[in-house]
Design brief:
It contains 7 helices and 7 strands, in the order ββαβαβαβαββααα.
């Protein structure tokens, strides 16, 4: 998948970080289904669809909904008129989204490569760059997160439990610390509950 972005730069949403080296891109995109979202914050149809896509993405990747984030990455390809409009739109979207920098020639290259003529459009790609769905907008509207299982099977993803090397990379550490924090929270919660139980028992004994 990184070959699609060789020599290019992607931006991490709401951060100054650039994902530009082949190693960084490889680790960010490897063994994942890639969604290319062609849209605009000013397009009426996009304004209707973007909240659905946001919810779709969060339900597959956010710890509030799932224990382990799905093997899914999204790159926003903007049709916004200004960089400020693009930034304003991205601030309302999940932090895990990546984006093509505003005004980058890669935007037009991707539009031509995947024959995108109107927005919103969501191109679904295998890790090797092959197209799974040319435009999944209606599928996402109709099926919601359930359609990811079909894409996952089509992409023949390797179980990432075996991809231990990525656990030590700075880029992926941002996401893998989530379950660690969640585990710590669970342990702290159990300790608090145990202490409260002890206090309650001590109170009952003294009375």
């Amino acid at each position: 998948m990184a070959a699609l972005f060789t020599g290019k730069v992607l931006m991490a949403n709401r951060e100054r970080d650039e994902v530009e080296t082949e190693r960084e891109l490889g680790l960010a995109l490897e063994n994942k289904v890639l969604l290319l979202y062609f849209g605009s914050g000013q397009c009426p149809r996009c304004r209707q669809f973007s909240p659905l896509l946001k919810d779709f993405f969060l339900r597959l990747t956010d710890e509030f909904y799932v224990e382990r984030a799905s093997q899914l990455v999204l790159v926003y390809v903007s049709r916004d008129e200004t960089e400020e409009q693009q930034s304003a739109f991205l601030r309302t979207m999940p932090k895990r989204w990546l984006a093509v920098p505003f005004g980058d020639a890669l935007q037009r290259e991707l539009e031509l490569r995947f024959a995108v003529s109107e927005v919103p459009a969501v191109v679904v790609l295998k890790p090797n760059g092959e197209v799974i769905v040319g435009n999944a907008v209606e599928e996402i509207r109709r099926m919601g997160p359930a359609c990811f299982r079909n894409w996952q099977e089509a992409a023949e993803l390797v179980d990432r439990n075996f991809l231990l090397a990525e656990d030590f990379d700075d880029w992926t550490r941002r996401s893998i610390t989530d379950p660690i924090r969640r585990l710590k929270y669970k342990l702290d919660k159990k300790m608090t509950e145990a202490k409260n139980k002890e206090r309650k028992e001590e109170g009952e004994e003294s009375s």
